[in-house]
Amino acid sequence: MVKDSRISKFYEKGIDERLALVKDFAELSDDEVAVLKKYGGLGIESANRMIENVIATHELPLGIATNFIVNGKPVLVPMVIEEPSVVAAASNAAKMAGSFEASSDEPVMIGQVLLVGVKKIPEAKKKILAAKKKLLEMANARDSVLVKFGGGAKNIEVKEAKFKGMKMVIVHLLVDVSDAMGANAGNTMCETIAPELESLSGGIARMRIISNLAIYRKARAKAVWKKEMIGEETIDAVIDAYAFAAADKFRCATHNKGIMNGIDSVVIATGNDYRAVEAGAHAYAAYGAGGYKPLTKYYKNKEGDLVGEIELPMAVGLVGGATKTHPTAKIAVKILGVKTAKELSEIIASVGLAQNFAAMRALVSEGIQKGHMKLHSKNIAVQVGASGNDIERISALMVKEGNISVSRAKEIMEGKK
After folding, report:
1. Is the dihedral of CA 79, 81, 87, 90 positive or negative?
2. 350-373: per-residue pLDDT in tens?
3. Can 58 be counted among the known catalytic residues?
């Protein structure tokens, strides 16, 4: 059989017909197709409305991080992630911290309009700024509902950029998006004012798009881990680990990845755009002087306790997108008990800080692998057909021996030494 991935009008076909075509192409078994037909809580019709060419849904574990108290409020935190030990680590770090103080900026997103071919850039910048009132009125006329709830376009910024001799004018439209993530509102407003910007500048509006580097929409959190709780040696070791990340970009990338283990988990659970949050976080880590930097910092207070702080852009919403259409995401928001996007962003920042502390504490003590390997060994046991108490027995033996492999799990299952 000659395979061809060029399937005419695949998008017009029904879900079962698409799946049948994929089955033939990939030579899937009936059992494999049956797995794909287990659609889970989302449901196939909802999934089919969300993206194109749907054949199935893809599930990930949904866990609950416990022990979080954010701004005096007890919180259970839904986390969606496939990596072992993340949920447990966040819960343990929150328990040791006791509570988190968190804050966030107003939900202002940056919409960008790129103008090229501008002959007189200084004059164009002056004209655009002089027309600010008119431009804001034009933008807000496109989203009266957002304006009604206190949001809308709030300001205009203009800057010049250069690349390989090319000169560009970049207009920033600052939009308060209220409880939305804000991409649709920002993009629509940018498209609305683009023709007027062309007229004012004499240039061509090449692009009209939101930026994920949301520097005006940051969330921050702070926690204190008492020396009586974690020990002075651990405090010194964690501060050394933070210095390592601050001094070395290779370590810093993994330091920040650990933060995003916690943050992405909550962002996904609530149906928000984790790619946007990831992009914004890492761009912010590289924003300003000094190159790529840790998103957290650690130091001792006057009592000798460990203080951890985090700050990063947090463009998340409670209206629009999958947050309102994905049934599990709606339940996750209800579990969190949040009423505003600001409150959600503050909890997410707290989880990121907790996750980072937990990872660094593990790294400077027993090492990160202990918890990972314990959970990984259980997955291996399941792979070889173990169930019930056999999973724990096989897992414990593999961890004790330091041989966590499919072959060793099979030997234990078969009663071999």
Report:
1. negative
2. 999 999 999 999 999 865 555 556
3. no
Classify the C-alpha dihedral 163-167-168-169 as positive or negative.
Answer: positive
Q: Which regions of the chain carry the CATH code 3.90.770.10?
A: 62-105+219-367
pLDDT for 320 equals 81
Positions of CATH 3.30.70.420 in the chain: 108-210
> Per the residue annotation, which of 372, 374, 410, 411 is the catalytic one?
372
3-state secondary structure of 235: helix
pLDDT higher than threshold 90 for residue 171: yes
Q: Is 372 a catalytic residue?
A: yes
Percent of residues in the chain assigned helix, strand, coil, to nearest 5: 50, 20, 30
Q: Give tens-digit pLDDT for 52-104.
A: 999 999 999 999 999 999 999 999 999 999 998 999 999 999 999 999 999 99
CATH class of 108-210: alpha beta
Architecture of domain 62-105+219-367: Alpha-Beta Complex (3.90)
Distance of CA 382 to the CA centre of its chain: 30
Q: Is the pLDDT of residue 234 over 80?
A: yes
CA gap 132, 155 in Å, rounded: 7
CA–CA distance, 393 with 387 (Å, rounded to integer): 10
Mean per-residue pLDDT, 33-56: 93
Place of tokens 């006329």: 141
* Catalytic one of 143, 176, 273, 343: 273
The conformational region for residue 317 under phi > 0 = left, psi -120 to 50 = alpha, else beta, is beta
CA atoms within 13 A on the CB side of 415: 0
Quick check: is 273 catalytic? yes
Please calculate the CA angle 322-323-328 and round it to the nearest 5 degrees: 90
Options 37, 257, 330, 410, the catalytic residue: 257
Q: What is the pLDDT averaged over residues 302-330?
A: 94
Reply yes or no on whether the pLDDT at 374 is more than 80.
no
Q: Kindly name the residue from 24, 83, 232, 401 that is annotated as catalytic.
A: 83
